[in-house]
């Protein structure tokens, strides 16, 4: 009977674990066997040069930004001044325009004011006022087709039309002249503003020049004062040196006065920095002591020469003994070297026999490429 093997939960988990370990092994292999990822160390001088270049570039950029910011601040201040002047000029022009409108463009002077007059009903006369006594408001005021003042009305309308045309022409001429005057005033204001800005710039340059000249004069005065002070100090130093040389020449130190070296602490005591030398008696004692020291030194040298001769004789005898011993050691070393050479020849013969045995017996089975391919295949 055929038995079917059914996988359970533990088999599935085991398969998942094996697959997970296989994927981890593949990822680890790709990381470890990648020569680029295994490479360690960087080009430190090149990185330092890059850092220095970046720092120089950043400093240059900061310097340019600072110069640009200073120029921007100066332009902004000038723009603020010009803008304030332009606003003042516009305000003045607006005031003049409003004054002109209040004086020459009043609402009651307009042609259509009679249509927009709020008091028109109060100013109107009742209809048919010229026909005698006025009639009431509820009476018949006008009939269809009736026009009693046609000729007078047409005449008035023609005169009014002519007046309107003349008034339009005059208003247009006045408006054009006013516009030209306003443009001329505006251009004059702009020109005056530009001239004022140029004058301010000129004054600023002149102030800077004067300030530079004042600084130059102040520095020159300081340099002259410093030079004069140095000359005074030099003269004072020369005077002090002259006085010091005169005092030294007239002092007891250069006059060789032996009494100044006597100390108040004792008869045989002397002041060191004022001592002028020994007298005749002290010189005799000094020369006698010097002769005794010379005799003692000569005796000491004779004793040293005698001892040196004895040491030289001892050294020669030792050298002869050492030379004899060296000859005996050389003979011994030659015997040892000959014995060692024979042993080495014997060892070389044994080594050749051993290599022949390894080559013909032990290493006869040469490994193939499959044998080497099984190494370094995993990361564990």
TrEMBL record:
Q: Does the keyword Coiled coil apply?
A: yes
Q: Where is the composition biased (Basic and acidic residues)?
A: 9-22
Q: Which ranges of the sequence are coiled-coil?
A: 165-252
Q: Which controlled-vocabulary keywords does the entry list?
A: Cell projection, Cilium, Coiled coil, Cytoplasm, Cytoskeleton, Flagellum
Q: Please give the InterPro entries that the UniProt record associates with this protein.
A: RIB43A (IPR008805)
Q: Where is this region: Disordered?
A: 1-22
* Domain of life the protein comes from: Eukaryota
Localisation: Cytoplasm, Cytoskeleton, Flagellum axoneme
Signal peptide feature range: none
One Pfam family of this chain? RIB43A
Q: Which family does it belong to?
A: Belongs to the RIB43A family.
Subunit comment: Microtubule inner protein component of sperm flagellar doublet microtubules.
- Can you say what this protein is called? RIB43A-like with coiled-coils protein 2
Native organism is Galleria mellonella (Greater wax moth)
Which lineage do the record's taxonomy fields give for this organism?
Eukaryota, Metazoa, Ecdysozoa, Arthropoda, Hexapoda
